[in-house]
Every structure is written in C-alpha cells, then in structure tokens.
Specification:
Elements lengths: L1 H23 L3 H5 L1 E5 L2 E7 L2 E7 L4 E6 L3 E7 L8 E8 L8 E10 L2 E7 L7 E8 L4 E8 L5 E9 L2 E12 L1 H9 L1
Antiparallel strand pairs: 1-2, 2-3, 3-4, 5-6, 6-7, 7-8, 9-10, 10-11, 11-12
Amino acid sequence: MFCIVLQENLRFCLFIISCVLLFSSCNKKNFLKKEIKKGSFSLLKENDSLYYLTITSANNSDKWKLPYPVYQFQTGDVDGNGIEDALIGVIKPTRFDSIKANRLFIFKNYRGLVRPLWLGSRLSQPLVNFSFKKKEKYTRIRSVEREKSGKYLVAEYKWRKFGLEFTKYLRRETDSISAIALLEK
C-alpha cells in the first residue's frame, strides 16, 4: 500500500514539474503568437482577429496591422516588377459593402516597408477563396466566387496598373468541390 501511494505521488509530482516547465518556457504573449513566413513577408497572429504583416531585412523591419480574421496568406510577384508581394485574404465589411465577407488585400514591399498595393472590396462576385498562380510568362490570381444562383465560378485576374483586371472564367455554375479543385490546379 505504501508503494502505491508513493507511486501516485511521484506521478503527480512529475505532472506538476512538466506543467511548470511548459509554462515557464513561454510567457502568455509568446504562447498566443503564431508566425507564418513566406519569402520576405511573414504573418504574425496575435489572436483570431489581430494579425501583423511584416517584412524583416538585415537592417530594417516594418509591419502593417490587420485587425481582421485572416483566411488566406500567399506571396508572389503580382505586379511583375520582380519584387514579391503579399496576398492576404481577410474577413471584413468595407465602405462600399457593409456585410462581413472575404476580401483580397495585396501588399507590396516598398524599399523594405509594407505598403498597400490593392485593398479590394470585391471581385466580380462574392469571393470565397483565391490562389496566386505563376506561369512561365505571366502571373494570375485565380478566384472561387459565389454565383447569384448559389453555385460557384472560377475566374482568373491579372494585375493592370492600379488593380485587378478580369481575364477569363475557367468554369461557371459548378459545385464547391469542383471549384476548389480547379483553384488548386
């Protein structure tokens, strides 16, 4: 009986020591932070509705506050200038559309500073998701959007001076599974 009590006390002590080591190795703020790094950009998550888009170089660091839930983060040279851009999918209302919905924001690296390239309120239809595609000679942003009928469409856009320009539909009036598969293709 004495051995059983001693064994239970030993397990309890090991549990307490494990918990102390776990929580002493990180303070609460570091425990909540999650960083996703893609190229020169990284996305730092403070909580479910506060993110920071950051650029860190050898001699500079800059960040842009995103006080919205983020559903997508990709990087690529959207405008064709040879410098990587960040594509962020956020969920928020806009000045022109008061309903919370998926939006696409594009940020550029301007001399080591995070600056907006395009803060889209909407594409041709309500946005579901997007993907950056680089082909041999050009880049495109592919989107899944919700049709008025409730089905989905897959479209491609290219950068045109001050915003995205529609290039073509890849598929219309399709189900969500087919649309997502085409988005990733």
